[in-house]
Write a structure and sequence with these properties.
three-stranded mixed beta sheet; Hypothetical Protein Aq_1857, Chain: A; 9 strands; alpha+beta; six-stranded mixed beta sheet; single chain; globular; 18% helix
């Protein structure tokens, strides 16, 4: 599997915790997607899934299986998924080298 999306240690810890809290078994993976919307035109979507769809692209980092649909793959190849907590933490953050512009909240982007 290629490293389409990588994750930081903090993101891995948070994903592991969510999977444990939700009683997701190892048939589940993290689905990372891009959808239209947000103040910059495209926004990130992160969910847990256990059903593969036609055209899905898979990679794995730090033992976490990550899935991207074919459209999202074009926008997200090389992206790092991070997690920030604490007083100013925003939750999951995407560090996308393909984004030419991101909004102030960091939840949407354009290419």
């Amino acid at each position: 599997m290629n490293e389409l999306v990588t994750i930081t240690d903090k993101a891995k810890e948070r994903i592991d915790k969510i999977m444990q809290e939700e009683n997701y078994d190892n048939s589940y993976f993290v689905r990372v997607a891009v959808e239209s919307g947000g103040c910059s035109g495209l926004s990130y979507k992160l969910s847990f899934d256990n059903e593969e769809k036609k055209g899905d692209q898979f990679c794995e980092d730090k033992g976490i299986k990550i899935c991207l649909d074919i459209k999202s793959y074009l926008y997200l190849a090389g992206t790092e998924l991070d997690y920030s907590d604490g007083l100013t933490g925003k939750g999951f953050e995407f560090h996308n080298p393909n984004a030419s512009r991101t909004c102030a909240c960091g939840e949407s982007f354009s290419v």
